[in-house]
Amino acid sequence: MIITLHAAQRFLERVMKKNEYTTDELMFARNYLAKVFKDFIPNSFAKSFALPGFEKQFYVIHKANSIITIIPKNEEN
User: Per the structure, how many domains does the chain have?
Assistant: First the structure.
């Protein structure tokens, strides 16, 4: 599973509520998400699903074996 930098940024901004972060924090977030989705097997080309550990608050947008972004549930289409 590929974790985009955009997804890592959105994780820090939206989930961790950080407005400013270092490159190290960005890489930590990307590595954290990679571990969370290590055993994830996509069952479709594009899909949204709940972020593990934050199921009631956030969705993950997945497309073509990549985590694209993370959005709050109240911003879903």
Answer: 1
